[in-house]
């Protein structure tokens, strides 16, 4: 069982503010991204394994969903099946981002 690395919303905000290269992937469904988005590449959970070539291997990749559960499962699956070592689960997902970073983000 591989270790799932996590990143907090504060750490992600710092990366963004400092311009640190990274890729943000949103594994929620399109209708969820329509309600609230933090500008990640939308690859719904069910499509991730078919679109794995879109996921970068040379910079940190932060995977997020609504609360962190689906994204954690995706990180685990990608690490197990494709030997990624640069993946991070966004702890608390977009709910944590809305609560701790940007209160203008609509929660659902």
Report on this structure:
With 108 residues, the chain is α/β, with parallel strands linked by helices. It has a single domain (6-100), classed as Oxidized Rhodanese, domain 1. Helices cover 35% and strands 15% of the residues. The protein has four helices and five strands; from the N terminus they run E-H-E-H-E-E-H-E-H. It has a five-stranded parallel β-sheet with strand order 1-5-4-2-3. Helix 2 (30-35) links the parallel strand 2 (23-26) and strand 3. The protein is globular. It starts with 5 loop residues before the first strand and ends in an 8-residue tail after the last helix.
Fourth-level CATH superfamily: Rhodanese-like domain
Radius of gyration: 13 Å
Structure class: alpha/beta
Per CATH, the architecture is 3-Layer(aba) Sandwich
Instruction: Determine and state the CATH class.
Output: Alpha Beta
Task: For the structure shown, list the relevant keywords.
15% strand, alpha/beta, Oxidized Rhodanese, domain 1
Write the layout of secondary structure elements.
Layout: E1 6-7, H1 9-18, E2 23-26, H2 30-35, E3 41-42, E4 61-64, H3 69-82, E5 87-90, H4 93-100
Parallel strand pairs: 1-5, 2-3, 2-4, 4-5
């Amino acid at each position: 069982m591989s270790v799932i690395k996590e990143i907090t919303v504060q750490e992600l905000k710092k990366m963004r503010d400092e311009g640190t290269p990274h890729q943000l992937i949103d594994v929620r469904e399109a209708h969820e991204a329509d309600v609230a988005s933090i500008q990640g590449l939308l690859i719904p959970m069910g499509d991730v394994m078919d679109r794995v070539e879109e996921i970068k291997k040379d910079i940190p990749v932060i995977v997020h969903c609504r609360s962190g559960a689906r994204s954690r499962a995706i990180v685990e699956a990608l690490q197990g099946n494709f030997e990624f070592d640069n993946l991070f689960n966004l702890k608390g997902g977009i709910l944590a981002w809305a609560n701790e970073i940007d209160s203008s983000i609509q929660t659902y």
